[in-house]
Amino acid sequence: METKEALRIALQSLWANKLRTILTLLGVVIGVASVIAVVTLVNGANVYVATKVNGYGADVFTLSKQPAFTDSYADFLTYEKRKIIGMEDYHAVQNDCRHCLQVGAMQSSLGKIVFGPQSSSDTTIRGYTSLMAEMQNLNIVEGRDITQADEDHAAHVALIGSDIEENLLKGDDPLGKEIRVDGVPYTIIGLSEKQGKTLGQSQDNWVAVPLTAFDKTYGSSKTLTIYSKAGNAPGAMEAATDEARQLLRLRRHDLPGAPDSFTLETSDTLVGLWTQISGSFEAVAVAIAAISLIVGGIVIMNIMLVSVTERTREIGVRKALGARRSDIMLQFLLESGTMSLLGGAIGVIGGVGVAQLITLLLGFPASIALWSIFAGLAVAASVGLFFGVYPARKAAELDPIVALRSEF
């Protein structure tokens, strides 16, 4: 029997039992859709994090009380017990780090912004040193950044994210407008470019004021995050990070051989840690989805066994007319393989659709990985063929005389 003829017969058999075929496909569809959706979302998150972190520049590193990502509660408790990074630490790095081309610092808190009758709660209030927006790669589309003069005089000036302009100022020209940040008046001097959402959380609901003005309102007991730019010269990053680390270790009296009492992170560190965390999540999700594929394969095998029983007389007639064992096996293997491959194709479309829907509703970044589509189809077809071997062999080994006597 030619492969083309066997495929035609397999499709006819599947079409003749449409409802049973659809129900059989569900396990494969759910499994493949789950894998594709998870891989698409994780890949999108990886691309987003890499873009954002690298946006700070490959030559920028940070010094903070605790890392940006913590993968265990025990580590989190350890980091919480550390001393805060204060203004003295910042000034030590700023004044004594010879390999650091530029040094800035930031503090943050949550607060309420009021403009006329409009207000915004749970807004991130940032305390910036001069040129911090530049170091965080924020593009000022209107106005200017916070300057050293603003910092020296604790000036009541503010940069705002696009959410403040859209929701409070309603699109009016923000420059020169006065807003109240937790009751304190500030004059808007700059507007940042819109950044969008991440994991459903807006990245534009913030106001930045000079760090000295921030400390007057909120106090200096909050920990700082120090940003430093090392330059692009060969070995500049290593020299700057080593020097900054030694300066902080001396100031914080870290004993020789003891771990740092602070966290130093580069863009590569953050991307690597996030990739590790997301990779673990992806592995668990794929393992769970694999269970759906196995269940789907078992369902396919069960239905194929039923099909062999129902078509016993048909098999006997084909053998009596000269069909070989290989022809019968090919017919049933193609039937199970076609069924699972079709389920895989539907699952791929459904998985991409689910990922895009999550992106639309929650703002979670998504990026389709082509390898995952081909892998999903290949795995689906393999499941069908693997679980179709036993029913196909059982059909091929039927005695034609016994098969012709069957009542089915």
From TrEMBL:
Subcellular location: Cell membrane
UniProt-recorded Gene Ontology molecular function terms: transmembrane transporter activity
All copies of domain MacB-like periplasmic core, residue ranges: 21-241
Any one of the GO CC terms: plasma membrane
Keywords: Cell membrane, Membrane, Transmembrane, Transmembrane helix
Membrane-spanning parts: 21-42, 283-308, 329-362, 368-390
Limits of the ABC3 transporter permease C-terminal domain: 287-399
Membrane topology: Multi-pass membrane protein
PANTHER family: ABC TRANSPORTER PERMEASE YTRF, MEMBRANE COMPONENT OF TRANSPORTER-RELATED
Family to which the UniProt record says this protein belongs: Belongs to the ABC-4 integral membrane protein family.
Protein name: ABC3 transporter permease protein domain-containing protein
Organism of this sequence: Granulicella mallensis (strain ATCC BAA-1857 / DSM 23137 / MP5ACTX8)
Lineage, top ranks: Bacteria, Pseudomonadati, Acidobacteriota, Terriglobia, Terriglobales
